[in-house]
Automatic annotation (TrEMBL):
Entry's family note: Belongs to the enoyl-CoA hydratase/isomerase family.
Organism: Pelagivirga sediminicola
SUPFAM superfamilies (UniProt xref): ClpP/crotonase (SSF52096)
Gene3D superfamilies membership: 2-enoyl-CoA Hydratase, Chain A, domain 1, Lyase 2-enoyl-coa Hydratase, Chain A, domain 2
Gene Ontology MF terms: hydro-lyase activity
Entry-linked Pfam families: ECH_1
UniProt entry keywords in alphabetical sequence: Lyase
GO biological process: one example: fatty acid beta-oxidation
Highest taxon, organism lineage: Bacteria
Descriptive protein name: Enoyl-CoA hydratase
């Protein structure tokens, strides 16, 4: 059995089901908001799964109530244009997206902001009928900073990408399935079993071949996507220094409508 169990913590848990590693976000009191310690722990466990010969597919889940409501607001409010590009949280997102092992996201409830970016970076998404997908960053006066301006398009097209990034609209599970964001929709009670079954099907294949297939499918991401992601980070970093972003974060914390002034 894998030694990854020893790296499970209070924020991210690892379990093994045969050749499938199940990685569970465990911050339910905060709707699995992505704090820096949580992202660090997640990136470390995912990397260990990727290096383990006995883990041939990964299920990434937040459980049957919520996937992740997005980045902990403190993760963003403490950054400036100078600090965000090389921040721990930004590097953690990059590390998770770089996993070579196939990853199935099992999504229930809110899958927002950074949580949505993590799910979209996975290879397949199994959604419960309660799932809701959104990039709400525009409502706070900035933009997604971990792929949310790029990762909707390969699945759902440029129109869906533009709507996600420019409106922050929420897609329920069935709309997400029609758009191509979710691959499968199941009742909440069946989410764990359905995602594990799909992962076991993948894990039963030749591991060199599944990794090669993933690498080949992601080849178009390559340099153009990497350049676009760097541009996204640069733009996000600049916006974090704006008065509008400060107002958006303050309004969110104070549970009021923001007053944006374009500065």
């Amino acid at each position: 059995m894998s030694s990854i169990h020893s790296h499970s913590g209070n924020l991210v848990r690892f379990d093994q089901r045969g050749a499938v590693g199940v990685v569970t976000l465990c911050r339910l009191d905060a709707r699995n908001a992505l704090s820096v310690p949580m992202l660090e722990q997640l990136a470390r466990i995912m990397a260990l799964c990727d290096a383990a010969r006995d883990v041939r597919c990964i299920v990434l889940t937040g459980g049957d109530t919520v996937f992740s409501a997005g980045a902990d607001i403190d993760v963003l409010s403490g950054h400036t244009a100078a600090t965000y590009p090389d921040s721990v949280n930004r590097r953690a997102f990059d590390a998770i997206r770089a996993i070579r092992t196939p990853v199935v996201a099992a999504v229930a409830g809110y899958c927002l902001g950074g949580g949505c970016e993590i799910a979209l970076g996975c290879d397949l998404i199994v959604a419960s009928d309660t799932a809701q997908f959104s990039q709400p960053e525009i409502n706070l006066g900035f933009i997604p900073g971990a792929g949310g301006t790029q990762l909707w398009a390969p699945r759902a097209g440029q129109g869906a990408q533009a709507r996600a990034a420019l409106t922050g609209d929420m897609l329920d599970a069935f709309a997400a399935r029609r758009a191509g964001i979710a691959d499968i929709v199941v009742p909440t009670a069946a989410l764990a079993a359905a995602s594990l079954e799909l992962a076991q099907q993948i894990a039963a294949k030749a591991p060199l071949a599944t990794r090669a297939a993933k690498a080949a499918m992601r080849a178009p991401w390559g340099a153009p996507l990497n350049a676009a992601l760097e541009q996204e980070v640069a733009l996000m970093s600049g916006l974090l220094a704006s008065a509008d972003a400060g107002e958006g974060i303050a309004a969110f914390l104070e549970k009021r409508k923001p007053r944006f002034e374009g500065r």
